[in-house]
Structure formats: structure tokens, C-alpha cells
What we know:
Blueprint: E1 7-14, H1 24-32, E2 33-42, H2 44-48, H3 53-71, E3 77-80, H4 83-94, E4 98-102, H5 107-122, E5 126-130, H6 152-161, H7 203-216, H8 220-223, H9 236-241, H10 246-259, H11 262-287, H12 309-317, H13 323-335, H14 340-353, H15 358-368, H16 374-385, H17 400-407, H18 412-417, H19 437-442, H20 458-472
Parallel strand pairs: 1-2, 1-4, 2-3, 4-5
Helix pairs in contact: 4-5, 6-11, 7-10, 10-11, 11-16, 13-14, 14-16, 15-16
The structure holds a DNA duplex (15 and 15 nucleotides).
Amino acid sequence: xxxxxxxxxxxxxxxxxxxxxxxxxxxxxxxxxxxxxxxxxxxxxxxxxxxxxxxxxxxxxxxxxxxxxxxxxxxxxxxxxxxxxxxxxxxxxxxxxxxxxxxxxxxxxxxxxxxxxxxxxxxxxxxxxxxxxxxxxxxxxxxxxxxxxxxxxxxxxxxxxxxxxxxxxxxxxxxxxxxxxxxxxxxxxxxxxxxxxxxxxxxxxxxxxxxxxxxxxxxxxxxxxxxxxxxxxxxxxxxxxxxxxxxxxxxxxxxxxxxxxxxxxxxxxxxxxxxxxxxxxxxxxxxxxxxxxxxxxxxxxxxxxxxxxxxxxxxxxxxxxxxxxxxxxxxxxxxxxxxxxxxxxxxxxxxxxxxxxxxxxxxxxxxxxxxxxxxxxxxxxxxxxxxxxxxxxxxxxxxxxxxxxxxxxxxxxxxxxxxxxxxxxxxxxxxxxxxxxxxxxxxxxxxxxxxxxxxxxxxxxxxxxxxxxxxxx
DNA sequence: TGAAATGTTGGGGCG
DNA sequence: ACGCCCCAACATTTC
Length: 473
């Protein structure tokens, strides 16, 4: 029977799809190879650099993947170092004749893969990449002229037109035919942090999805915007490292919509719309790779940004003196996650109030967000800075106080992350400086002592921003 | 998936 | 009864 299979031993290189469920690299390998070897490449940096929330989540996902592989009679093999070296070394060591992995969308990654493919070809092994990150491939959603979309709304319309073409998820057999490798030091289990802890399994993501669709999706349209409320799916970290398949999420949402009351359907379609935003930014990244280097829109590439290191530090630590901004930035450091509404607010604040480059913010987010995603992160930051696709005819400048009053009316979110402000009444919590001295003393919250004075004056900075941007047009 | 400035309307107090 | 002013509430325009 093995005669039908094109390969004898396939390395399944797990990257960005840290799961066994609906993993095209894995199930195609099971179809095409007599044996598979599940393999992970760990960079030395990921072991020795500071353990951010992002790295913690990644480790947890890796342990969960290993556990799921063990349930299926195999285990995760590990190679340290740069994949450009480690993968060829693994191919040689395991005498594999193919490497299966999921495809990337960023230009630097695709170039690395192209070089690796050449090198492996020289060793007589194939590198085969499988689409996985998005539901609909970028070349399937083009306008009438055959060009990629630059504006979300028409993109979404075109996307939905082919919504039924999203592939159905594929489940895996109970057993994985794996090669028996003698050297146990090459297994993940040999690493000190690899013993399994609570909440590691990828089923966690499936459970999260089911709970969201059952309890929250119906109210998603409204509640997703209120950072003090658990109104979002919280699936983004799982989508980022691939502990859940995007197609699994999509079809579950579609099915939930079929059984839902008409009023609940709106919530689900808003949720799907957010998935399409993610899809939109993936195709932007693929078709316009320069966005990783510079502004999408040429006219904003010469904008002058501030290099004020103190301002950047205060922003990243959540010490700007604007409660909603500080709550959000502290949530990021504590949890490796930030509510979407809050992301927009802090991004507007960095770029429009501090005049610091969106690229600094992009980098900071990427380091700390457990859900860090090249495409969505870049798209979101360029959107906030006004340098990206979907150019709006006006300057989007968020007023941090108005946004806070509108989306965190009773101050729940601010109180959760900014203990200095916990005692303040809702009427003052978003602008503590509006209290007189007695009130500040009474609540143990003297501005400039217990809680920072606003780093900048929003109204002044707003006027300045409009000048700066206007000069670029 | 803005916010502020400016314009319009209508009710109430008041002479 | 009427005009006048003030101002909140809402709508429109502008950046």
C-alpha cells in the first residue's frame, strides 16, 4: 500500500499551525508519506530571552501540540537554531525525502522558504507548502480587473461572494504513522519547560470557540466594543499560533448562525466580518509587501516622527496620565492581550498625540501580544496612523477622554488595570485632573503624585497633528 | 472602526 | 401677546 505514496518519510515542520486538527501540512503528509516526523524549530532567542506573555503562550501551545501528538502515538521532535540550518540538518538526520509546512504571506518569510526549498532540492528532498492561514487565498479574491482590493468594503463583498468555497475542516485519524527515532534528546519532552501544565491543550481553543458562539456571539456587535466586558471571542492568540484552524472557526460560526435567532445572526455576521478584516490584511501583506517597511500610501512616507524616548517609555509602561490609555497598555504587559477598542485608542494616542511612529508601536505590540500577527498588526497600525489602505478623507484622531466615556462609561476597565484610580467615581475616572485638590486628596489620587499628570495636552497635540499631516498631502 | 466647529430649532424665562 | 435672549439638543459641515 505504501507504493501509492510519493514519499517515504516526511518531516512535518510545525510553525504557525501548532495543532493536529485541520492542519493541511499534517494531513497531507499522512496521505503522501509512509511515515511522518513532527518537527519543531526553536530559535535560541525563544529560550533565553525575556519570557513575555507572548512567549509563555507559545510554550503552552507547543506543550499542547506535543500532548496531542502523544495521544496519537508520536511526539514532537525539536531542533534548535535557525530553520535555514536546522531544517536541512533534520532532513539529513532523519533521512526524510520531503518537508511539509504551512505557507507564509510575508515577503521575507517567502524568500527564506524559497532559499530553503533550493537547498533541500540539492539534498534530494522536497519542500512543500500548504495554504492554511486564511480561508480564501489572496488570488481568489480579486476585483474585475484582476487586481487586489485596497478598500475593505468591496473586498468583503467579493469575499462573501465566494464564502461557500471556504474549505471544510479535516479531522485527523486516531493514529499517526511515525518514524521511531532512537535519540530521546531530540524530543520536546527533553526541555525543562516542556512538562505539561493546565490549559495547554488545543482543545482549550475549541472550547473557547464553542462557549463564544453559544453565549457571546449574539451580543457581539455591541459588546465587542466595550473593553470592560468579556464580549469578544478571545480566539486571536489561538489563531496567531495556530492552535485552532481559521476554517474550523468559520464553519462553526456559519453553523451557529443557521440555528440562531434572527437577532443573534447580526452578532455572528459581525464576528465573521472581523475574520474577513484579518483576511483582508493578509492579502494586503501578500500583494503589497512594502507595508512591512513603510507606509502603504506613498504620500505619508516622509512624515516626520518624534523620537522622544521618555514619551515612548511612558506610553509603553502605561504612565501617560490618560487613564484609558494606561489601562490598556498595562493590560498588554500583564496579559499579552489588549481589547480591540483599546488598541485603536492607544495607537491613536501614540501616533496623533505623541507623534511617535506607528512602526514603534507595531514593534512593541508584536513583542508583547500573544496574538501577534504580522498582517493584522501592521494593518491595524497603518489604519490608526492613517498611512494605510482604506484611506479616509478626514484625520482620525481619537479623543482619549471621549472614547473612554463612550466605551467604558462606568470605568470598569480603567479600575481593573489602574489601581491608583480605583477609588474615583465614574464622573472623574477618565479625567482625574478635573477634580479639585480636596477631591484628589479624599480619593488618595493626587495628580502628579499618585497618578501621573497628562503627558501632553490632547487639544494642542491634535492641532499639531492636523498641521503635520496636512503638510504631507 | 471621529471630533470639533458651526448651524438650526424650539422651549422657557423675562420684560 | 410678543420679541428677545439663552441654551440645550440635534443636525450639518469641516478638518
